[in-house]
Amino acid sequence: MVESGVTGAREAPPAYAVEVGTEPLDRPARNSVGGWPCLDDGQEWPECFCGDRMALFFQFDVPADVEHFAGDHLLVFHCLAHNDASDPQLVDGLLVPRYWDAPQPPFPRPFWRALLQRRARRPRPEAEPSVRALPLTLRPFPDTPGPLGTSAFKVGGTPYWAQYPEYYTCACGTDLAYLCQVPEGVDFAVHPGLPEQPYSVRADTCQMFLGNEIYLLACPAHCDPAALWPVNQH
Ligand SMILES: [Zn+2]
Ligand SMILES: [Zn+2]
Q1: Domain that holds residue 193
Q2: How far away, in angstroms, is 73 Cα from ligand 2 center?
Q3: pLDDT recorded at residue 146
């Protein structure tokens, strides 16, 4: 018997384009840029080491066919007063214990916080005050099969690496898995009258991680709601 060669071919992982609407939200939504964060009971709104509450940049429910993280609620926060690229700190080949709270030289702690929440039923009554609340939708799209996906704001699919692929192992010993990509230079609209973000390009928008390409890797073991690492490249 001759093997067809098709058997065992890996199907492309499901991919969703993240689309941001233009009509401001006037009520809570689970999928939003800015907006009302859906957090588990007991989960505080993240604060930066500088004492500022971090801004909610975006949140969404991970679609049911995305491996490892189906049904989780992803939220990404970043301080508006601190803006830099992430710098992985390793010990014995693993990310350092509690890397989401560990020193991020020259800072005493990270200036961002990504969370996967599994019991986030209700949005908080308070909306994100700085980043404008806009609707966010996830649209299935055919991500380019192969080692390089498409450079897009997307969930699932295949990461489009600007440089060589970068993967890390969680402090719990589980290899982090790619979840979401935010391409280089994505601007998020902010309400007028705020102090300008350091290194920002425009006064009416803000960016995360100096506008670098962001690859969110997360721990499939869900060892902690904050067990995610944002790889930055440009
Ligand atoms: Zn800060
Ligand atoms: Zn872990």
Answers
A1: 15-234
A2: 17
A3: 64
